[in-house]
């Protein structure tokens, strides 16, 4: 089975931590035998022009690769253009959170743009042949745009080989953290105001001292290969976001047996339900501080690896494959089974440049070096 994955988030030399969860999902699909190519729409580098002539780029990639399914791995303008204008193959769109919920704490200009993006997401959901939501609560944000029979809830998986319990004292020593402090890890989201860093800072500031210093560390621009070290060095993960889809860092923390204190956002409540040592709290500094103090008093890590095994990238890949097959059967598409081992290297086609760079995707690295380049006619564009 051949899948053309289209995304505006993907690790690059300039932004190695961008879209790692997308890369991991693609790794999983390839690991179970699907032939996957990536059309990378580099919105961050190219700006709003990144989607200009996107339809031509997609059509060229479809003609060359002949995929069974197009999987658009984020909503908004990109998904809207592809879902409504490409009927050569079945189209699946994954929605992650902000693409359906907007950016409600950003400045007025960004807020207006994000609201337009939400409208585009709803149109894309209506036109797509299949819709993937990373969390159940996002179904409400579809506002009836997609019928229930074409919607699946499939959270992004995590690499359980990478995210696993390590020696906490050794990890603290490696990072140069004080061995006597209580370490709170804040999922900061690279300065995104939706993460509400001021709320996290206020909560940590209100923690009772109890003779033990408290330090808060922001998980910002940390290479993916180093994130497990940070999670294992910490005593608790703190999440204070206004809204989320299915925050990957929570699943990664649980895979490392790290306690979680969070506001009731996204699917966090579902992930930590019944876990001793994890807490939900109202978005108030005093309430969050109280739960952080409970974690400190408990003084030990979780034992929940078995709970997160269902969230492995391979399990997620199998669920996506089953969804692809269900859609193509429903639409009467042939040639679904028996593709076996991928016959092509996993390729990345930048949609906004004259050069097509192909890269084989392996486990997320800080840099991805091009293997070869192929000239393409005309510049791409988009936002």
Short description:
This protein is α/β, with parallel strands linked by helices and 383 residues long. Helices cover 36% and strands 16% of the residues. It has 15 helices and 14 strands.
Blueprint of the fold:
Layout lengths: L1 E6 L12 H12 L3 E6 L2 H4 L7 H12 L3 E4 L4 H9 L5 E5 L2 H4 L6 H20 L2 E4 L4 H4 L9 E3 L14 H8 L6 E5 L10 H9 L8 E5 L8 H7 L2 E4 L8 H8 L4 E4 L4 H5 L6 E3 L3 H14 L6 H4 L4 H19 L16 E3 L4 E4 L13 E4 L8
Parallel strand pairs: 1-2, 1-3, 2-12, 3-4, 4-5, 5-6, 7-8, 7-9, 9-10, 10-11
Antiparallel strand pairs: 13-14
Helix pairs in contact: 1-15, 4-6, 8-10, 9-13
Structural class based on helices, strands and sheet pairing:
alpha/beta
Strands of the widest sheet, in order across it, are 6-5-4-3-1-2-12
* Mean of all residue-level pLDDT scores: 83
The structural domain count equals 2
How many helices?
15
Query: How far apart are the first and last residues' alpha carbons, in Å?
Result: 30 Å
The proportion of strand residues reads 15-25%
Task: Give the assembly state of these chains.
Answer: single chain
Class of the largest domain in CATH? Alpha Beta
Along the chain, the helix and strand elements come as EHEHHEHEHHEHEHEHEHEHEHEHHHEEE
Shape: globular
Any idea what the CATH superfamily of the largest domain is called?
Answer: Glycogen Phosphorylase B
